[in-house]
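PTHB1 N-terminal domain-containing protein structure dump, as promised
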Amino acid sequence: MSLFKTKEWWRTRCGANETFDRHSLLAAPLFGKERHDILVVGSHDGYLRMYKPSSQWVDETKSPTNYKSTDLMIETRLDDCIVDLKTGRGSQDLRLAVLTASKLMVFDVALVEESNEYGLPLGDRCELKIAYEHRLSRFPASLTVGPFGGVRGRDFLCVQCLDGTLLFYEQEVFAFVQATRNRLLAEPIVYVPRYDLFVAASSSWCLECHRHVLATV
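structure tokens r here:
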């Protein structure tokens, strides 16, 4: 006996012969809660796509309306492999952070409502404008975003490199680099805002907690 019943609600294929991993998919309310979650997909081939699923369940046919061409809000290709995707608070609105093999790129995201010559809606389109970017000196493995140090109203960024080194950015400004011990490879790392802690596993099978401390001069 199953406790859950599932139904396929929406489906699409992202390109052809592209590769993805667990960091390639992100769901976030980029345009406010009233717009529901937007699906952001980044591939190792550098393609960045955003979807706003509009599928609805039809009781008469016992099936969903499924994918529509207007569900795809944007498809663009970056110059490099997309490693990770995150959202974070900028000065005002939510921004999209894209970690590639050579850069950390942060975009402002704008929503454009399109209609035809008769005023009928054609769906929403997304526009990306780069807010700032940082070139990376090491090959990245993952990206973590949060109000490090208890900062209010904005989020900072932490890039974990393949050798376990952590690069911290206070938005447009590079803050510092932190070398970690007992790391043979990059491990999953999670930021816990309530306690302002970074939780990560070491290569010696230990769970470590680290706190981000803002230095004052």
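The mean pLDDT is 84.
lmk if u need the other ones
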